[in-house]
């Protein structure tokens, strides 16, 4: 008798344990079941750099019961928070299907659970104990305020308010990543990174030291590297331009100085009389005062007077200086 009781208790424990492994479960509302594949598919979601916000990697599928029930086992989920999607594939296309949202995104870890309630839509409301997913829903409510603006959409206002919300209201890194991806999709991230580089570098450092899957923030790392490269190239180009301008100015100054010196020499040369220039050239050629006097048929005193005038005009005091200054 005791053996049967123990066996019954063991079966109950196994049953409870099995139920406990189903961390994603719930019900679908199918108006036309024949139009839909009778399986719910589970995919792991990655953030990427393309125009689409997400890419999906299928990991499991669950049969749908007659009552619309489906469930996924704990084994399909990561220990840490990750983004997942469940969706239903249509068998044939119809006009009504375009109005039906056939997927649902959520954040979950294998330590949490999520349950979809019965409702009037394919995937109705759900309840979860995952704090990251709850914060994500709050972010969606915040973003919904801007979805109805359309033509009146103010990108500066959106960027300013979103930055403030990310920094002040979001505490969970994965949700911050999702919100930053939203900025990227609206082509506002690059501008914000340029204006707040220190913040994004600090955030990336925090992400790298966290337990978040690196594949989720690789797009942000690539974006930062690309922008940093562009800034470096721009600085290099600017530096080359400034160096070129500086080089041009230096060359121009050198040419100006040389030109002024030539003009000065010409001015000095022109200030000497013909006789003084002749005597100057004779001195440079090595002639003595006596030789100059004999060659020019003038007295030595006259030669000395001319030499004195030459020294005065050239601001020198000896033959040696004249030879240097020639």
Automatic annotation (TrEMBL):
UniProt-recorded Gene Ontology molecular function terms: DNA binding
Record-level GO BP terms: regulation of DNA-templated transcription
Positions of transmembrane segments: 236-258
Domain HTH luxR-type: 265-326
PROSITE patterns found in the cross-reference section: HTH_LUXR_1, HTH_LUXR_2
Domain of life: Bacteria
Keywords per UniProt: DNA-binding, Membrane, Transcription, Transcription regulation, Transmembrane, Transmembrane helix
Membrane recorded as keyword: yes
The keyword NAD belongs to this UniProt entry's keyword annotation: no
InterPro entries: Sig_transdc_resp-reg_C-effctor, Tscrpt_reg_LuxR_C, WH-like_DNA-bd_sf
Residue runs in coiled coils: none
Pfam families in the cross-refs: GerE (PF00196)
CDD domains assigned to the protein according to its UniProt record, in alphabetical order: LuxR_C_like
Name of protein: Regulatory protein, luxR family
Source organism: Aquimarina amphilecti
